[in-house]
Amino acid sequence: MSFDINKIRSDFPILKKKINGKQLIYFDNAATSQTPSCVIDSISDYYKNYNSNIHRGVHSLSEQATESYEDSREKIRAHFNAKYKEEIIFTSGTTHSINIVSNGFVKLIGKGDEVIVSGLEHHSNIVPWQMMCEKNNAKLNVIPINDDGELDLDELKKIVSKKTKIVFLNHVSNALGIINPIEEIIKLSHENGAYVLIDGAQSAAHFKIDLQHLDVDFFTASAHKLCGPTGIGFLYGKKELLNKIDPLMGGGEMISDVTFEKTSYADLPQKFEAGTPNISGVIAFGVAIDYLNKIGFNNIEKYELELLDYATTKLKKIDGLKIYGDVKNKTSVISFNIIGIHSYDIGSILDKYGVAVRTGQHCAQPIMDYFNIPGTVRVSLSFLNTFDEIDILCEALLKAKSMLS
Amino acid sequence: MSFDINKIRSDFPILKKKINGKQLIYFDNAATSQTPSCVIDSISDYYKNYNSNIHRGVHSLSEQATESYEDSREKIRAHFNAKYKEEIIFTSGTTHSINIVSNGFVKLIGKGDEVIVSGLEHHSNIVPWQMMCEKNNAKLNVIPINDDGELDLDELKKIVSKKTKIVFLNHVSNALGIINPIEEIIKLSHENGAYVLIDGAQSAAHFKIDLQHLDVDFFTASAHKLCGPTGIGFLYGKKELLNKIDPLMGGGEMISDVTFEKTSYADLPQKFEAGTPNISGVIAFGVAIDYLNKIGFNNIEKYELELLDYATTKLKKIDGLKIYGDVKNKTSVISFNIIGIHSYDIGSILDKYGVAVRTGQHCAQPIMDYFNIPGTVRVSLSFLNTFDEIDILCEALLKAKSMLS
Amino acid sequence: MTIENLQQNLIEDFSFFEDWTQRYEYMIELSKGLEKMDEQMKNDKNIIKGCQSKVWLHAELNEGKIKFLADSEAIITRGIIAILLTIFNNRTPNEIIESDTNFIEKIGLKEHLSPNRANGLYSMIKQIKFYAIAFSKK
Amino acid sequence: MTIENLQQNLIEDFSFFEDWTQRYEYMIELSKGLEKMDEQMKNDKNIIKGCQSKVWLHAELNEGKIKFLADSEAIITRGIIAILLTIFNNRTPNEIIESDTNFIEKIGLKEHLSPNRANGLYSMIKQIKFYAIAFSKK
Ligand SMILES: Cc1ncc(COP(=O)(O)O)c(C=O)c1O
Ligand SMILES: Cc1ncc(COP(=O)(O)O)c(C=O)c1O
Description:
The complex is a heterotetramer, with 2 copies of chain A and 2 copies of chain C. By secondary structure, chain A is an alpha/beta fold.
């Protein structure tokens, strides 16, 4: 399929919105992606036509809902190329997924053991592990970053050892857009007998991911960053590992046998899907993946990198504008400051021009601490954006700058 | 408002559905409720007009989403009459809520302490506590039931003591529809210094609940049983208790300060809402509560009890039909068997007549074990059902019976 | 008769039915011919997961052929079991391993059963094939 | 001037602005007149939670009146602080406690600020009132 930006934009009703009298320009795609009509309609369709609790239901509605729900699992499996369908666990999002794994590792590792996090993480991939370490006394080591915001693999080589039990990092940094060298990190970790969890919240929307090829042990992403709805995501884990870890939550569906004396867990994936799941969310997630594949990840990647190039070049022309993480290997995210002006002030003024950006720490305080800044302005582009929008951003930035200095 | 059943039914698009060529008759309301157009539309509206990640966003979309999200919290607070807005925590549903509390109590109680569960529980209110007891060695005691399916309060008086730290039970049993005497149980528990968690998954849709009046310590319900969407619910907890317990999950939003050395939690309710929440779900949940209040819980309660009466009388006329939990104080749920026929066979045949019922254990295996049956047929009525539908059910049951015996 | 012949017969039998009542009545009829399974065989070891009603399946090798005994609490499920055993009972492991299972779609069982029930059906077939593979290695 | 008079003045000042640029420019202008806050006062104890940019507020009782010092990293927030201090600085605890705060709506600050920023604003007012109550008990 060729990439027709106007046609694609027309699939997204929100892009017609006016903000403060101006056309909405949405540059906050890394926080949440916008939603195409087909995904929105699939949610309505569910509630209008086959809303029902799933599994164990004997009636037709329940069967239709169950089938659509399980079809969606198969779509996710196929798209990310997991080996088995039951390796795909539906969660409420990346944060939930990571907590399942960190909680599961409470019992698997202990005092004297070590775990490694990158210095480039979202709080969701730091805090759960700190909570784990508090329980099992494992030691948390950090892969440091350099002044470009890149991970220092030489340092990783020094801290990884046979004591290392699991290494967790994001595929792409949400604050800077840098793509981490996960193939190398997975190899290095596996050589030392450590498992690897990859937080794909910021990568899955931008290029195709092959889980079997990566040979990663755990992987997760959120639907709301993939043109899907809020409140849904998935955790991938290798079957033998998912079988090994305890579930985070107990409840209906996740058990095979319950007495007051003893309970036995159900097989995968149910073991980790306690309670009534976000059924409409799961189904719509599948529709979103189909939609993205229809556009084609090759097309998306190519177009987004063109946008990134154009925007980076133009922004750099603004006096006093400093980009953080301005490296070669990145997705279409630009994190910057204008020297002497607080990101929050810039964001507030941009909003008046209809331009939506994110400002602040981006839930990645350690990165901000490293650069010793209170935050950045983050422009996160997606395949829905246009070159014109970037021009308008630059004009609005100049106006904000003159107002604020 | 007077109660106009035809007008109300026309708010629910799914009720026009045909199943196996017959008009859908939905008697599985206790598993999940159906969804009115206003709730469905609020979800579409969100994605079409103001989809955005919430909190910390500086742009207008994010602010609109944040405001709607927080408005919904206020709607839930007001409806259930909690004292403070921050006592309402959004969760993915009842199961998630209960796990937050059971996990929070891991550290608060220990060996020698006791906890009490009722014999009438859904697995979601058993398994999380078993997981807790495994970690802290607390002892799990059970309030037994009698042959009518009612809790034996005399037995409770014997097992509750100063050692008891928390008592947890459902307000209404999902398997039998029995309303438990929670006021008495709360009083008795508090007298012994024990906290009480009430699982309101099956009560909140049927009558109005006043949390401050009940003086309950924790309460929870799921939106999908309250005309809302799947994947969302809430946990109520008294402020001082929520402040006391550790969060189940770590992540973005729920911290106020993160370094690799130390992290401090944010204030309520954020402390328990790690990660991007189900934003559209929360907003639609608020719309559902508004919708139910527009119909009026008095109207709902009155109409549903009339339906229950009619159905109970009619069903009892069927030879060999035995109702479990046929007591005075119950919601519009009828759980039964026809002697000699498996519930699953009945459910399968009813489905062919367009009648959706649930069959099996209803995630409440201990109750089935008590009655020594593999399961029941559960007809769960709501204010959407009609007397005619009950007549059709009875006819279909007679046909099923003659086919299967 | 070969497994294939039997499957062909079943497909024809089922093609005559005009509505679900006939199909169900036929399955209920078939269920009555099911060989009785010993109560003590209905143990946890023999339970098949993934079915809505309890299903037990026992297998033993008898002079090179596999003898199956199976039962369920629900009569419609018993009917399904009866169909499967008509086809697979007293066959050699290899016959079972090599047999095709798309007769299920052709019977229309899949549509006329529900996906949940179809899941149970597939679980049973999976277990039958699992036994066949296990016995073929002895 | 009483708190009420000052509030009335502000409401009038703001009513003259025709668009957001004028409002913002006015706030930015006001921010420049803010009394300097000692760097060492910008400590964790003085941080106000719930604001998008960091806000510090320090208070001390001086001859029966409360002296406030406040600052923020962001200039628009400094403008808001300036407005609040114009009204509440050097007042007795009781004056502050008894003052009405619905001038915020009347200024149109609430609509023209965002809810998030408005939250920050309310957090600041809450903290100001909190100090007043604390000092009134001394
Ligand atoms: C009494 C009771 N508790 C808990 C639950 C679990 O609710 P959810 O599946 O929405 O988490 C249910 C739902 O069936 C229920 O009926
Ligand atoms: C890198 C990264 N990890 C984790 C998360 C958390 O995802 P969610 O909020 O969907 O749980 C995000 C979202 O901002 C992210 O960007």
